[in-house]
Amino acid sequence: MACCVYLMGDPKLDIESETIIKQQTQWTTEEEKLENANSKDLYAIFCGIDMQKFRRIVKCIVAKTSWDILDTTHEGCKRCKF
To answer: Does 25 fall in a domain?
Structure first.
C-alpha cells in the first residue's frame, strides 16, 4: 500500500524562547491542508488493518509515526526478504 505521509503535528509558535501550540483559528491555509492530509492518511491506515495492529498505533496523531510502527513491525527476518 503506497501512502502519502505528511510530517505534521500541531503547528507551534515560538514566543520569547517558549514554544506554544497554535489554536486552530490561527492556522494558515497550508497548515490546514497538511492537517487534513494527515487525517485522511491516518484514516486510510486505520481502515486497512486488523484490531491487533490497530492497538499498536491507536495513540499516534501523525500518520508518519503510525506508518513507521507498522513498517518496523512487519520487516520480517532477513532470510524472508527478497
So the answer is: yes
